[in-house]
């Protein structure tokens, strides 16, 4: 679907509260003459520090932005996490510089990684890792760049906010030190980088940079309140004076960033963009404070490309190659059963059996269902599947879950369900040392019962020849249709602000959600979708394998070339005054 950017207008109403009229005139003049020669992709995730889909986007899209749009220079600017990243993976730039922050000069340096890429054509680009003692101290068993304190959410947010504020102050100085000073478009990712829309403008006024603009992509609507007293720590004297005259105690990072950014705000799928102003979860829980901004300026969906290509075994198959797909899929199923029977790390719990004996003898007609990924009680929907599994009798289905959890208590509900569903459910709560590929390719169905999903990984299952079952939300709607998978949705009557808030506030003890009507309806509708999918698999096998084939065709609609072209159109709006 084409991006409808023609009606978008730049609204800098908030900007007048941060800058004087003559300063805004200078900013406008610089933007009006800006050329798109340097794109600086700013992300708190990178190839060495991953949490969700943003890391995958970061390690896919940059070469396409550069090559498809003939942009002379595309770079990544990202934090160096000393507790996560092995410095030996990076090289030294030899660049050291000072960053004015909270009336101090913080010493910083840049490391670099040279990315030699082959797609869309051979080339190279630089990734820069910003290091400063006292910042970016995330690190846990999960090696998650957003986890600074896994036991106290308030402290974790404060520490991440501190690193965010410093990053947004430091990036213009880092570019100055690199000699990249004009014709810059900052492509900002998530709230952690949103305030660069403000600090980059001040950098133009104080001479740190000659000309730069900003565009923002939201992968989630998670936000963070920024007291104005903290905001003054990253401001120059003129901006500090303006902030001191404001009556509020502060605004969130997005409330500031989305109102001073220079281009249309984007997110990573078309349906998720629409949900920002239509889904009760967003309008009443995650982002009620942003609704006025969204309605005024809009949010535009740019679908991600596919994170992986069709598995080599299936390449070259035609639409009618049902029998060939069946043979390959059954071979992959046997490989998965072998892994499930033999791979027994100490973290694994829950048995998979057939008639109380080894899973190796499981008949082909009994489906294998997999759900993988990080455990996020506000997003991923593991508890929805756990409740649904209890509805199936022994040997009706076999379920494999691989949740990446933070705390031991996160697994309590999994242990409970594994006991109730003995023989039908196994849990591997760690990064798999073996078997991940077999799960993706050998499973009958890949489950994504997401509470919300900006883009999602449905195309990854499709690429491995596995049919998706997902909740009809966000990017899953863009990826999955009745031709290649199954979607479900809870009954609308239960999607109330009260039920949603109760659901969200029980994230620490998800068993409390068992009586929540919203989750109950999700689980009940998932059961119906599963039963429908199992019926097709068992009684219409040709129909099932045709779904596999259609999934391969669906993947072709999600390309990084297309994403890069659309983002360039967004960048062009930076210069429209």
List the helices and strands and how they pair.
Blueprint: H1 15-18, H2 21-32, E1 38-42, H3 53-68, E2 73-79, E3 91-101, E4 104-117, E5 123-131, H4 153-178, E6 184-189, H5 196-205, E7 212-218, E8 225-227, H6 228-231, H7 237-244, E9 250-252, H8 253-260, E10 265-267, H9 270-275, H10 280-286, H11 291-297, E11 299-301, H12 322-342, E12 368-374, H13 382-389, E13 398-404, H14 412-420, E14 425-427, H15 436-442, E15 445-448, H16 458-463, E16 467-471, H17 474-479, E17 485-488, H18 497-504, H19 517-539, H20 541-555, H21 560-572
Parallel strand pairs: 1-2, 1-6, 2-5, 6-7, 7-10, 10-11, 12-13, 12-15, 13-14, 15-16, 16-17
Antiparallel strand pairs: 3-4, 4-5, 8-9
Helix pairs in contact: 3-21, 4-5, 12-15, 12-20, 13-19, 19-20
What does this protein structure show overall?
This protein has 577 residues and is α/β, with parallel strands linked by helices. It has 2 domains: 15-305 and 561-575, Rossmann fold (3-Layer(aba) Sandwich); 312-557, Glycogen Phosphorylase B (Rossmann fold). Helices cover 39% and strands 18% of the residues. It contains 21 helices and 17 strands. It has helices spanning 15-18, 21-32, 53-68, 153-178, 196-205, 228-231, 237-244, 253-260, 270-275, 280-286, 291-297, 322-342, 382-389, 412-420, 436-442, 458-463, 474-479, 497-504, 517-539, 541-555, 560-572, and strands spanning 38-42, 73-79, 91-101, 104-117, 123-131, 184-189, 212-218, 225-227, 250-252, 265-267, 299-301, 368-374, 398-404, 425-427, 445-448, 467-471, 485-488. A 9-stranded mixed β-sheet has the order 3-4-5-2-1-6-7-10-11, with helices on both faces. It has a 6-stranded parallel β-sheet with strand order 14-13-12-15-16-17, with helices on both faces. Strands 8-9 form a two-stranded antiparallel sheet. Helix 14 (412-420) links the parallel strand 13 and strand 14. Helix 19 (517-539) packs across helix 20 (541-555). The longest helix is centred in the N-terminal third of the chain and has 26 residues, at 153-178. It is globular, with a radius of gyration of 25 Å. 47% of the residues are buried.
């Amino acid at each position: 679907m084409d991006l409808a950017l023609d009606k978008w207008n730049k609204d800098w109403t908030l900007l007048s509260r941060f800058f004087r009229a003559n300063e805004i005139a200078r900013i406008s003049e610089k933007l009006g003459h800006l050329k798109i020669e340097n794109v600086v992709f700013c992300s708190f995730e990178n190839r060495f520090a991953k949490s969700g889909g943003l890391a995958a986007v970061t390690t896919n899209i940059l070469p396409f932005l550069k090559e498809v749009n003939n942009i002379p220079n595309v770079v990544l600017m990202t934090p160096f996490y000393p507790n996560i990243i092995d410095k030996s993976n990076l090289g030294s730039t030899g660049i050291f510089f000072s960053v004015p922050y909270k009336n101090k000069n913080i010493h910083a340096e840049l490391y670099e990684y040279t990315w030699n890429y082959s797609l869309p054509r051979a080339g190279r680009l630089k990734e820069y890792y910003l290091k400063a003692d006292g910042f970016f101290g995330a690190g846990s068993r999960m090696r998650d760049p957003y986890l600074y304190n896994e036991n106290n959410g308030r402290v974790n947010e404060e520490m991440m906010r501190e690193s965010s504020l410093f990053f947004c102050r430091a990036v213009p100085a880092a570019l100055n030190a690199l000699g990249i000073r004009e014709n810059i478009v900052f492509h900002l990712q998530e709230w952690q980088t949103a305030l660069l829309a403000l600090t980059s403008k001040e950098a133009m006024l104080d001479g740190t940079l000659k000309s730069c603009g900003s565009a923002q992509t939201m992968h989630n609507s998670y936000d963070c309140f920024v007291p104005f007293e903290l905001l003054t720590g990253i401001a120059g004297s003129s901006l500090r004076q303006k902030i001191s005259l404001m009556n509020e105690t502060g605004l969130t990072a997005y409330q500031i960033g989305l109102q001073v950014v220079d281009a249309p705000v984007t997110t990573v799928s078309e349906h998720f963009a629409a949900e920002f102003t239509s889904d009760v979860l967003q309008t009443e829980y995650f982002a009620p404070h942003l609704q006025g901004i969204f309605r005024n300026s809009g949010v535009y969906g740019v679908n991600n490309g596919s994170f992986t290509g069709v598995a080599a075994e299936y390449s070259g198959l035609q639409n009618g190659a049902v029998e060939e797909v069946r043979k390959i899929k059954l071979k992959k199923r046997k490989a998965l059963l072998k892994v499930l029977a033999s791979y027994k790390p100490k973290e694994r719990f829950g048995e998979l059996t057939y008639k109380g004996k080894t899973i190796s003898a499981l008949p082909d007609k009994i489906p294998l269902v997999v759900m993988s990924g990080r455990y996020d009680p506000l997003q991923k929907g593991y508890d929805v599947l756990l409740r649904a599994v209890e509805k199936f009798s022994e040997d009706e289905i076999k379920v494999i879950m691989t949740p990446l959890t933070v705390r031991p208590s996160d697994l309590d509900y999994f242990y409970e369900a594994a006991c109730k569903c003995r023989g039908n459910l196994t849990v591997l709560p760690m990064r798999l040392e073996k078997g991940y590929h077999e799960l993706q390719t050998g499973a009958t169905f890949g489950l994504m019962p997401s509470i919300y999903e900006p883009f999602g990984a449905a195309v990854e299952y499709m690429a491995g020849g596995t049919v998706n079952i997902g909740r009809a939300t966000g990017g899953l709607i863009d990826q999955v249709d009745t031709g290649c998978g199954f979607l479900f949705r809870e009954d609308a009557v239960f999607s109330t602000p009260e039920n949603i808030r109760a659901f969200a506030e029980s994230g620490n003890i998800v068993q409390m959600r068992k009586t929540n009507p919203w989750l109950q309806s999700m689980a009940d509708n998932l059961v119906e979708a599963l039963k429908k999918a199992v019926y097709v698999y068992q009684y219409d096998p040709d129909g099932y394998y045709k779904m596999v084939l259609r999934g391969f065709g669906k993947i072709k609609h999600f390309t990084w070339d297309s994403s890069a072209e659309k983002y360039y159109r967004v960048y062009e709006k930076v210069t429209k005054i």
